[in-house]
Amino acid sequence: MKVLWLQSGGCGGCTQSLLCHEPRPLFDELRDAGIEFVWHPALSPESGEEALAVLEACADGSRAFDVLCIEGAMLRGPNGSGRFHRLAGRPLTEWVRQLAARASHVFAIGSCTAWGGFSANTPGNPLEACGLQYDVEEPGGLLGAAFRAGDGLPVVNLAGCPTHPGWIVDTLEKLACDGLTAADLDEFGRPLLYAEQLVHHGCPRNEFYEFKASAEKHSDLGCLMENLGCKGTQAHADCNTRPWNGAGSCLKGGYACIACTEPGFEAPGHAFQETPKLAGIPIGLPTDMPKAWFVALAALSKSATPKRVRDNAVEDHTVIRPSVRKGGK
């Protein structure tokens, strides 16, 4: 399976993330699955005229490829001309439209490409940035809501900022080995292999969440939802059950989840690590929980919080260890 990869308006962080694929080296993993890059701007040896020849051959149909991967927001400005970002004298948006029409599958790599990302959420959006098939959470984007690739699917949105290397590799391998269908994607076109979970699943702070024992400052061990902006109960991703670099996640590093897989995450309307509240209740509640139930359960949980959990929640290390019971009782 042949993959053509282009980079647009972004930081290149998704490529950097991809290079950290584990446990096997990236290129060994892809090669054994029968996946190869036709061209990648950071990983392929061709540059200059050689690279342009590859792109032109793919665009005119004389060189076959299967998957078009785009990393970075689509920059349509100024005035819809696409001239803010050119490749070999042509707007990159023109290249993308032409190549997407040739591709059997189109992948948006990262939240910038999926929804528009930071480029689309600058004041007034002077770059006229958007995603491949979404403008934030509204269908449309560069290719339009009706776009379908050669396989009949819309754009596959591998959202994340950056996207996890495993999400990219696993989706490519799923496509190469079993194929992808609409049943493999969620409502926003994200692969269910990671989007059917919430970041909350496997969170190392779950005991504090269960008892609503909240951190008060960033170094505290407690739950980050109530005061420090954590959106792990709303973010679709498996970050805590599929660790980054074999061991880590934002929450394991002490940082609140900012829901970077979700449309519009980069412009929440408040500081990332603050929790907006109404009458003392967080506005952003867990995705599946009615507000009345949350309030009732939170009150019950706090009333039953063990002293160990309550005290440890506002410390930067464990001060009270779990008790040891003898005799199996």
Average pLDDT over all residues: 94
The CATH H-level homologous superfamily of the largest domain: NADH:ubiquinone oxidoreductase-like, 20kDa subunit
CATH fold name of the largest domain: Rossmann fold
The helix fraction, in percent, is 25-40%
Total of domains: 2
β-strand amount: 5-15%
What is the C-alpha radius of gyration, as a whole number of Å? 22 Å
Approximate shape? elongated
Low-confidence stretches: none
Largest sheet: 5 strands, parallel
Number of strands: 13
Which CATH class of the largest domain applies here? Answer: Alpha Beta
Protein structure class: alpha/beta
Cα-to-Cα separation, first versus last residue: 58 Å
CATH architecture of the largest domain: 3-Layer(aba) Sandwich
Main-sheet strand order equals 2-1-3-7-11
Briefly say what this structure is.
By secondary structure, the protein is of the alpha/beta class.
What does this structure look like?
- This protein has 329 residues and is α/β, with parallel strands linked by helices.
- It folds into two domains: 2-193, 3-Layer(aba) Sandwich (Rossmann fold), CATH 3.40.50; 197-318, Irregular (Cytochrome-c3 Hydrogenase, Chain A, domain 2).
- The chain contains twelve helices and 13 strands.
- It has helices at residues 13-18, 26-32, 48-60, 92-102, 111-115, 117-120, 165-177, 192-195, 206-210, 225-228, 291-303, 307-312, and strands spanning 2-7, 36-39, 67-71, 74-75, 86-87, 90-91, 105-109, 129-130, 134-135, 138-139, 156-158, 277-278, 281-282.
- It has a five-stranded parallel sheet with strand order 2-1-3-7-11, sandwiched between helices. It has a two-stranded antiparallel sheet with strand order 4-8.
- It is elongated.
- The model has no long low-confidence stretch (mean pLDDT 94).
